[in-house]
Amino acid sequence: MQPHSDDRQISVSCAVITVSDTRTRETDRSGQLIQQLLEQSGHTIAHYAIVPDEPDQIRAQLDINAEAIILSGGTGIAPRDTTYDAIEQLLEKTLPGFGEIFRSLSYAEIGSRAMASRAIAGIYSGKLIFSLPGSSNAVKLAVEKLVLPELVHLVTLLKG
Description:
160 residues; alpha/beta
């Protein structure tokens, strides 16, 4: 179901950033899944990194040269979950519907625990930013149901 039918095959340059104090390239299932889903849809991975839950290091990733940045991890309420806090104030525009719809879809899968997610999306420095939870199930849900269906449309809007 796509309201803006778009037959154009546009490849979006994406950065995938996993925020975690414990994951490595070998154990980062969520980061690998994001990359796989993006590439299967014809998009390119311009950058991939794993950074610790440190606000300064998270914010530094937003200056990567890419049209869209997808962060995974650090969106909960535990003391070390700092992704939301690191980027929320930097977003020039937010897409409130992203977080709202994501939590609604999550609620259908996991129930009331969905309320603890601080998933967010918006615009920073001309780039589309998505901040997702770290679980592979949440990543799969967000990327398949929200990110991929609208990625080309949103990036096209940003380019004016």
